[in-house]
Amino acid sequence: MSSDQDDAEDDGGIEPPTAEVAFAERYAALTGRFVHAVELAAASLFALLFAVGVVDLAVQVVGAVRSGAIVDPLVVIGFIDTGLLLLIIVEVYQTVIAYTREEDTRKIVRLVIYTGVIAMVRKVIIFRTSEYATTTDALVAAVAYTVIVVGLVALLFVERSADGVLGRE
Asked: Where does it mainly reside (predicted)?
């Protein structure tokens, strides 16, 4: 070993990248591109599911109008349920797109919270005590939904408050 190399090691100098490091960097870049492509494929799938869902909802509404079932509150609640499910798909799509664009983590967290709020509102709207074996089971589910909704709203409030404090409104 030369004295220059000894000095570089003693001084904490940086050695040139080895073949292993160069391979690892190329491999990491390749897998990064692969993950990005999969994310875009997932976003495309969610967009397709959304389009199919909108068409299906429209067909259901037209069928309910023609048959007169549109006046049945349970049918209308079913349409609301489907509409909220479509909004969940849109929120998941936006979350995936935010990941692909490597956007701010706070924006991604906000999208996830919005998705959770929509999902829980959907659960509350379609909640029926008759779907549970006992009234105690229904009460436990209702309390659980309430706790989750309150928690999500609190998270959203904290996230929004932090934006105000940081001047990001």
From this structure: membrane
State the pTM of this model.
0.69
Q: CA 82, 84, 87, 89 torsion: positive or negative?
A: negative
CA 133 – CA 135 distance, rounded (Å): 7
d(CA 102, CA 9): 37
Across residues 90-118, what is the average pLDDT?
Answer: 87
Q: How many CB atoms are closer than 10 A to CB 169?
A: 7
> What number of CA atoms fall less than 13 Å from residue 117's CA on the CB side?
15
For residue 161, what is the enclosing H or E element? helix 135-166
